[in-house]
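Hello,

Our lab assistant flagged a job as stuck in the queue for most of the afternoon. It eventually completed. Since we weren't sure the result was trustworthy after the delay, we are filing this so someone can double-check. Below is the sequence as submitted and the structure that was eventually returned. Let us know if re-running is recommended.
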Amino acid sequence: MAIKHLFKASAIASALVLAGCGGDINISEGDVTNEGDTINNPSPTPTPTPSPTPTPTPTGPESAFTQGLATDVSADFPAITDKPVYQLQEDIEFNEDATLTSDAHWVLSGRTAVGGDNENSATLYIEAGTTIFGQAGEDFLVVRRGSQIEATGTAEAPIIMTSVQDVTGQETDIGQWGGVVLLGRAPANSCGDQVGETTEDELNNCGVSAEGDAGQFGGNMPEDNSGTLQYVVVKHAGRTLGNGDELNGISFAGVGSGTTVDHIQVHQNLDDGIEFFGGTVDVSHVVLTEIGDDSLDWSFGWTGAAQYVYIEQSSEDGDNAIEADNSEFDAAATPLTKPQIANVTIVGAEDANGVRLRAGTAGNIINLVVTGPESYANCLRVNGDESRANADAGELSMTHSVVACTDGNNFSDDEGSEGFTQAWFEGQDGNQTVAPADLGLSEDGYTPASGSVLLSSGGDASALNDSFDAAQYVGAFDGTNNWMEGWTFGVGDGFPTDIDNALEQNLATDVSADFPSITDKPVYQIAEDTTFTSDVTLTNDAHWVLTGRTAVGGDNENSATMYIQKGTTLIGQAGEDFLVIRRGSQLHALGSRSMPIVMTSVQDVTGQETGIGQWGGLVLLGRAPANSCGDQVGETTEDELSNCGVSAEGDAGQFGGDMPEDNSGVLNYVAVKHAGRTLGNGDELNGISFAGVGSGTEVDYIHVHQNLDDGIEFFGGTVSVKHVVLTDNGDDSFDWSFGWTGNAQYVLIKQDAADGDNAFESDNSEFDAAATPLTNPTVANVTIIGAADANGVRLRAGTAGTLANFVITGPDGYANCLRVNGDESRANADAGELSMTHSVVACAEGNNFSDDEGSEGFTQAWFEGQEGNTVLAQDGLGLADNGYQPAEGSVLLNGGADLSGEGSYFEATDFIGAMDAEDDWTEGWVTVGLE
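-- returned structure --
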């Protein structure tokens, strides 16, 4: 497998165990802000098993609702229909034992506290399978000193703490509610004056203010017990209070070793995943995924242990996978931060960092693997004189571990200490530096495959800590048992494990014998003209053959979702074989950079000659507006939209409606090759047809290669697309009409001299150029590489739109770069409804512009009269050797428009075209068409 996939997939699983830094604590003595995490695990650490024995739900007291501490607010949440919804009283403090039961959803309101500070102590029981959610950053759960939480989920019924958006099916993100805070009475070196040795008196009288005004922590009870967290998932949390005062997914502040923490996950937290502020607590089986700052953070004297940690970082928000400090106030403060860490897998992400050991931390680490993409900032660094001194003295050690980044990014150091980290790492027992591709990971990107170097390079973890399993392998997984299965979220790109695939549902048969040249996987053929009326998966352990019209759902009835796993191949054998997603149903095709989903022809898979039109293609039918609803003339009325049913090409079904935010699913890293079907009378299948598709649909990183008709075509709708590659298509590459009002950013088109027509063919409506809703998309950052006898951008039939940062070029035989056709489109251009700015036209001088007869000169005058536009010779673009990316010094690297102010969809850019000189975002997943 390509290594870039492994970065993303494995980072998700490893991040939970290590998340924890980046959170800040306000210390009452001196009112100082500090950072750090502390974790303690009960001894002995539970042994990982592939199918953990479910822990019985504790028999607790009456529910909070029965006790009159919550109200039934089900009517306020009509989208939640499976259970009643009970909302806890605002800023409630439990002073008696209570239970949150699994027969309801529970809503936090403000700071929900268990007990006072060492007074009015209580235990909060949370049953397996219970869901708790917050609605804002102020909603969080804190367990105070002297109180306990008994949150004992199971692999089959984990306890979920998440946001209201997650529960109600809205868009999820980091920082949508507060998080979980455990405050204990174990030692922390932030007690007292925070300098030098923390005395017995300072520990006895300790009271350090935790973040978020949660309460105080610290004390002289290293074996303190704050309860149990077992099979608990915390998602979409985190709160920023300013001045570094932030809530982590789970904060362990002065938590003692009597506390049990086993099988926990934090997913998409605003600040750190988990953070240890002193304490002695141990943790095991930790998953930290897509964390906004550091995944695992420790400081202030944490002396606990952690085994089996999987971290998958976020390229958008992540900082360090592990940030490890003693104290930022006194790097020599005691008790010294010195945890014991074993069996960690870190999968990094672009621009993030791996393991950072600093500010006087000590600790013993064994069996850790850290890897990341080329743009990973670094794998490992030791910062600060105090931490380097600990490393030299053996107080800070790392053995039997593997660093696997690119050569220049494996290690990093402070200025003046260059080379220290590498020498320290390579000088210890069993450590190795290898290339990412040599790790020998399986297709999931984080577990070792048979023969992996990770399986034969580990040390005996139990020799480091007698509570550890022996686990003589590097990383969090032994290659056989995946302890994350069945209870975690987001690992494996969200592909469900509880939905049978089409073969298991008896909707496909094993036809491997009919394809003797396909030997890597079995071949399963979906039954002819199947309509899936319940959820189904197509898994990457087989190739899947389409037979006839394969449909997901009926038209607004019998709706279903098809999930296609990353790395899956779908095969068509003839033009009649195509896949359609009907109105009301969804497709979740979640590929990755190194494991894209490929939909192609049988000729491609079996090594025969490929060409255009060898199978059908992909059709998405949605319920968003289109001006082809109704009589297709003039304004499309509300009645016409609400009763819309426009027949799509290929007898695929109907599209259109009055739901602009309709959701047809997700396309991510999907390639459609060698497709297209001609039915006559203009009825043809495109590579991907978006017909009435709504803005709730996510489309990012798609490639259409050698399609008989258009590459992609939008028939009305509001869907937006990003990172689009269209190569060697038979007619138009990018086609829109009938009221499309979505967005597009980063589009790369390379045309075909044999079959291509227009790179862009842009219409409002061929039936009424003034029909509404008016076609009016916003499209930015487009590179068009033309071919002989083809055309560039054609704006016609009443289209409007905002176009920016285009570069259009072609050979001498290119028919034209740009043309505006038709009275209606010219009127829109004159009125500013159709615009093109900050763009470059670079064809042969006589072929730069074209016009209708009688309007000669219009297109050139319109283009040259707008802001930032330039006409250049083709050889003046300064393109790189690949022919589509600007080289260093290219005129395209400056002068682009920043459309980020037009809406949150657009990323800020200052360049013209689909990419800058550094980031060729096609690498790793576009395998053909750009040669």
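-- support follow-up --
The delay was a queue issue, not a problem with the job. The result is valid. The chain is about 5% helix and 30% strand. The first helix runs from residue 3 to 18.
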